[in-house]
Request: fold
Amino acid sequence: MSISERFLEHELGKFYYQVDGPQNAPAIFFSHGVAMDHRTFNDQVQGLKDTCRTITWDMPYHGRSNSIDKGLSFSKTAAEIVVAIMDELGIDQAFHAGLSLGSFVVQRLSNLYPTRVLGEIHISGGPLYPKFPGILKASIPFTAVFMKLYPSKPMARTFAKHKALAPETIDYLIETVKHTGKDAITHLTNEMVRDMVAGVSEPSSKPNLIVYGDHDLSFIIKMSKDWHARLPNSELAMVENAHHILNQDNPAVFNAILVDFLEMVQQR
Reply:
């Protein structure tokens, strides 16, 4: 099956997504991070093309998708759009993989629509349960000021080198950061903070895979380990020679970890 390019016609606008793989195979839905797009998961789509039905998309503010009202909760709205895409494709349940911001979307979806989730894959993510202290929201005004003062061109390169190791991943991020723009990046960064403070009502009961890169920030690595320790039905894996965008920095190792997890869950 060749990749099918589509738009979801939604009351909030048009949202771009791609579908690949056998129609009757297990489905896995990928949600990217801030200032990225569906291409973040090209290596996963290629690696799973014979065994899984893969769905990748451009989340609101990204790629070929619309922006949404900034008054809406991003993760909740994105989760609702994911479910609408699943409905359009006739998919009742899927594995859901999220990178960074996408991990928050997966957790929100699993909390609101648990029957639509077979398992969760969190790539460089962080837990929404338990929720973080409200004082964290004090950082929001400073983020806005910092981003406004930071020149756009060097910001794109700094952002990319802060997230990736592989030259091709860095080049990809420079492109997508410029396309997304500082205003959207600022808003989405602050939305992540709001999500962390709001949290979700209970920890996930679904099988979870938590993955981090060995070159990621120390607090991401610690958070991943602590999350795994608190979540009984979870697996933890580290990808060597990889930063935050670990699935692009070292796709072969990540894909092997992902396939093992998918097979393990389906054999239960």
